[in-house]
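Late entry, evening session. Most of the bench is empty. Finally got around to the prediction I had been postponing all week. Sequence below, unchanged from the version circulated by S.P.
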Amino acid sequence: MSKKKEKRILTGDRPTGKLHLGHYVGSLQNRVELQDEYDTFLIIADVQALTTNFDRPEKLSEDVRQVARDYLAAGIDPEKTTIFVQSLVPEIAELTIFYSMIVTVNQLRHNPTIKSEAEQYGYKEMSYGFLGYPVSQAADITFCRANLVPVGEDQIPHIEQTRKIVRKFNNMYGEVFPEPEALISDFPRLMGLDGKNKMSKSLNNAIYLSDSKEEVQQKIMQAKTDPARIHKDDPGHPEVCTVYHYHEAFNSEESDEIAEKCRAGTIGCVACKKRLAEKLNAFLDPMRERRKKYLENPELVDQILMDGTAKAREEAQKTMEKVREVMKIDYFSK
């Protein structure tokens, strides 16, 4: 008989397209590694995806399944991890409303992630849903009373906002929720292929978990390197090279040797890129094999999502019974 997992993880993604290597090193790798140790809930946050894709809701049907396939390909085990769809757990929306009563607009306006994303999307005026995204995320994290949240570096302000909401709710009404902690990976922010910005779908500088071998090779050969290095035998500066940054993340056993050769001018950028492409493709090959199973049997993905969502709803209902009780709004339950 397996030992009961005492602590719980909640983490997930907005289904806005394919997941990339930045997602993997930012939090997905931790999710895979920790699913044996923690009771893990993995949310596909389709409602939150509407904060920036409200004019294209028809995309969500495929995007939800795409993200689920990326999870399963990366090694998430549905026997160990509960994968569920946010919009199909209405208790999360209810908890969001309750939380919105104890969070001020000024707190949300000063959230650095909200400010940077509003600038990125060119929003001169923010919608209610976009501004309230951190409140919705707090409900996502706490509906199952999670203890730990593996996230990328850019999500830390949201976790801090969640902790504030939890403290305020518990102090006002009674202890219901644990105060969740963020778990940051060894590579919380992966540089994009352009060498200027973090890896991002919207900036077209990403290597996707679903990319073919040929796509990976092509993208790596176009990646930015040390701009000061013109000739093959010029001494290089690996610390400013995007390709070397990827070696550190995905080829750690050879990264020191590659850095030494780069500084000595004994390995050229082309050879360095070819070696990285080989390593990345070897890393992605098991994912490709797992993904093939789910592409050939799409009904398996739907069943995993339906089963996980049913389990998440059960947990959400338990939480909301307690929430209504401490708020004294369980009018007809006695």
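Two things to note before I forget:
Strands lie at 8-13, 39-44, 81-85, 148-151, 181-184.
The longest strand covers residues 8-13.
Will write this up properly tomorrow.
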